Amino acid sequence: MDGSTQRHLEACATSHYWARQIRELGHDVRLIPPAYVKPYVQRQKNDAADAAAICEAVSRPHMRNVPIKTEEQQGALVLHRARDLLTRQRTMILNAIRAHLAEFGIVAPQGPRHVVELLTQLQGAASSTLPVVAKRAIMALAAQLASIVQQIRALECDLLIWHRTSAASQRLATIPGIGIITATALAASVPDAGVFKSGRQFAAFLGLVPRQNSSGGKSRLGHISKMGNGDLRKLLVVGATSVLRRARASDASQIPWVHALLERKPAQVVTVAIANKTARTAWALLSHEAVYRRIAV
Q1: What is the average per-residue pLDDT within 106-116?
Q2: Higher pLDDT, residue 127 or 133
Q3: Which of the residues 162, 220, 265, 281 has the least number of beta carbons within 10 Å of its own beta carbon?
Q4: Which of 24, 94, 282 has its CA nearest to residue 174?
Q5: Helix, strand or coil for residue 287?
Q6: Model confidence at 295, in pLDDT bands (50, 70, 90)?
Q7: What is the mean pLDDT of the chain?
Q8: 87-90 long-range CB contacts below 8 Å, 24 or more apart?
Q9: What angle do CA 156, 159, 160 make, to 5 degrees?
Q10: Parallel, antiparallel, or unpaired: how do β-strands 28-32 and 6-10 relate?
Q11: How far apart are CA 112 and CA 120, in angstroms?
C-alpha cells in the first residue's frame, strides 16, 4: 500500500470481494496480477515479502491492473465453472460406462447419444451376457449420469437468463462463432475492455498470438503463447472451429480470407487465426458498445 487513497492488492483468491469492501470505505483499489508481482519477491516468500513486492511492482511504469468484478459477474463465472465441472464429470461417467460394458463385449458407437440408447436397452431387457451385480453398478452410474445432465441443463438455463439481462453479452452473441456460453463468459470475465489498448492486446492477453523469441533484430515466432484465461481461449477456439466448418461448406466468396488462409496454412492454424480475429472483434464491440455488422467484400 502507499500513503495516498489508493490501495493495491494482489489479484488472488477472494481479492475481488475485498476490493469491493475496501472501495466502500472510500478508497481507490487497484488489483495487480500475481505474475507481475512475483518477479519482485526477494528471497523467501512470506507476507512481508509479498507486501514489499506489491509496493515495488506498483512503482513500475506501465503497470497493468485487473478490473474489479461485480457480484453479478462473479456469479455468472460460478455458473460457468460449475457447468464445466459437471461436464467433465459427465464425460468421466460416459467413459466408465463404455469401458465397463466393453469388458462384456457390449460396444456402442462413439458419441454420448449412443451410450444413453444402450443404457435404455439394458434397463428394459435382461441381458444374459451381463452379470446382475455388474448391471446394478452400471445402472447406478446411469442414474448419476441422468442427474448430471439435468443439472447441466439447469445451469445453462440460468446462463440464458443472465445473458438476457446483460447488454454486453447480447452484443457479443451477434459475432459469428460466439454463442450464449462464450458471450456470457466474455462479458463476465472482462468487466472493462478499456484496460486493453487494442484488440491485438486483448488477443495477446488470451494467448492467441505467437510466442516470441526474438533477439538482435531477428523476429522468431513460435506456437501460440497460451497465456491468460484458458477457458476463454478454449471457447473461442471451439467457436472458430464451427466457423471454419461452415466456411468450408460455403462458397469462397462468403468468407474469402478464410479460404485464402486454407490454401496456405493447416486447418488448425486457420482455426487459431479465426479465434484471434473473433477476440479482436469482441474487444471492439465491448469498447464501443456496438453490434456486429458484417462488411461485404
Answers
A1: 87
A2: 133
A3: 220
A4: 282
A5: helix
A6: low
A7: 89
A8: 87/152, 89/148, 90/145, 90/148, 90/149, 90/152
A9: 90
A10: parallel
A11: 13
Residue burial 227-237, b: 16+ Cβ < 10 Å; e: rest: ebbebbbebbb
Helices 267-288 and 180-189, packing angle to 10 deg: 60
Of residues 194 and 277, more confidence is placed in 277
> Phi first, then psi: what are they for 215, rounded to 5°?
-165, 150
DSSP-assigned beta bridge partners for residue 212:
221
Task: Using the predicted structure, report yes or no on whether residue 127 has a pLDDT greater than 80.
Answer: no
Q: In degrees, to the nearest 5, what angle opens at C-alpha 76 toward C-alphas 187 and 237?
A: 55
Q: How large is the average pLDDT for residues 204-232? A: 85
> By three-state DSSP, how is residue 88 classified?
helix
Residue 43 has pLDDT above 60, yes or no: yes
d(C-alpha 165, C-alpha 168), whole Å: 9
Whether pLDDT at 287 is above 60: yes
Lookup: cell for 205:
492477453
State phi, psi for 90 to the nearest 5 degrees: -60, -40
pLDDT confidence band for 211 (50 / 70 / 90): confident
Residue 29 dihedral angles phi and psi, to the nearest 5°: -95, 135
- Sign of the C-alpha dihedral computed for residues 251, 253, 258 and 260 taken in this order: positive
User: Grid coordinates representing 28?
Assistant: 481507490
C-beta of residue 199 within 8 angstroms of C-beta of residue 279 = yes
Residues 6 or more apart in contact with residue 237 via CB below 8 angstroms = 271, 272, 275
